[in-house]
Structure formats: structure tokens, C-alpha cells
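Q: What would this chain look like folded?
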Amino acid sequence: MQEVYDFLKICGTYYLATTEGEQPRVRPFGTIDLFEEKLYIQTGKSKEVSKQISKNPKVEICAFADGKWLRIACSLVRDDRVEAKEHMLDAYPNLKGMYSATDDNTEVLYMKDAVATFSSFTEPPKTVQF
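A: My prediction, written as C-alpha cells:
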């Protein structure tokens, strides 16, 4: 899991795919946090992505850096604890202007049943499960 976290931090931006009915939806994300041995992302409950995850928590993440890419298939689980939100916001202080650990909008979600696959054109794929 640490290797997945480190890669996503290096990338800075990764792409999160959800579904809306039968239509896939993909958008850039930039938050990744390692808290209590789980990988977390952050969004706002008022956003469409949050509503899509609530209806279908199965998502995929894709990131690319230095000739390698990472795909993660997982389910996202909401963690409403203030401690989890604070940890994320401390890792990304620039978000504190828009979000608070105690507001009704901030949402942090951790990856569950994750299968992460590192790939490149020069090395065999490597899979990590957590």
C-alpha cells in the first residue's frame, strides 16, 4: 500500500472513474492520504462525484508518471470521523479555505478491497492488494 501511496503522491494528479447510470464519469483528483493504514481520498458531498459514489462505491483510479501507470480497482467507504477529515486537511492545507473537518460538506473515503496494478512498456505488471 505504501508503494501505491508514494506513486500517487509523485503523480500529483490522478483520474477517478465512477458511473452515473450506464455512463462512465472521469475527473482529475489530487488528494491522497495514508491514515490508520488505509488510503483515503477527499471530495465534497455536494459534488456529483460524491452522489455517484454513494450510488455505486466501485471506482477505478488511473495515474501516470515516469513511463509507468497505476490502475486501482476498489470500493470507496465514507469515513465521517472528524479525525480522518482533519488528517486529510492537514496533509492538504490549501483545502482549508473550502473545507472544514466539522462542516457538512467535507467527505473523506478510504479504499477497500483494492487491487492496484503497476504497468509499463518495459516491465511485467505488478499487483498489490489491500
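The mean pLDDT is 98.
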